[in-house]
Amino acid sequence: MARPSGLVTSSPKSAPEADLLAAAGDARTLRLFNTHTGEHAKITYWAEGKYEPEAMTEIDHILRDHRADEAYRMAPDLLDLMYAMQLKLDTSEELNIISGYRSPQTNASLRAKSKGVAKRSYHMKGMAVDIRVPNRNVGKVYDAAMDLRVGGVGYYPRSDFVHIDVGPVRRWGAARHV
After folding, report:
1. Average pLDDT for residues 30-48, to the nearest whole number?
2. What CA–CA distances, in Å, run from 176 to 44, 86, 137, 140, 172?
3. 128, 164 in Cβ contact below 8 A?
4. I need a labelling partner for 150 at 20 to 30 A (CA). Which of 11, 87, 89, 134 fits?
5. Going from the N-terminus, what domains does the chain have, and what CATH number goes with each?
6. Model-level pTM?
């Protein structure tokens, strides 16, 4: 499991995200369901002021490229963003993972089939996930991600998922009309 050297994995949190994380207490737990492998996990990845290495490895496995069966170290900031999404949506439901890490080969294969796959996708850097949340409209999930003002947010209502990443702040996808 590799992480490119020099990749910054800790960045200042946006005010809304920082407020949610600060109010959450001493532990951060993700509830995940990988829609491709059927795996469920409830993992406390941060406790007593630090990230838990064994929990991080378990999350990397759940978010692995299921096509290549290849895991990659996911950015801690991404896990914090996913946790902030759980809090923002006030849900105890599992985040349904459509796509986590993607190997370069998988990304190229998906890119050949769809114009919506970026050549230099943050999925290949362990910095992005595509999610849906049971019992939450995809528009509400998108709105929650936008409210956090962190990284990229892609809106895919026809496919019923939202892309979130910890790259530069930006947005794309079908226009939202509330």
Report:
1. 97
2. 33, 21, 12, 10, 10
3. yes
4. 134
5. 15-173 (3.30.1380.10)
6. 0.87
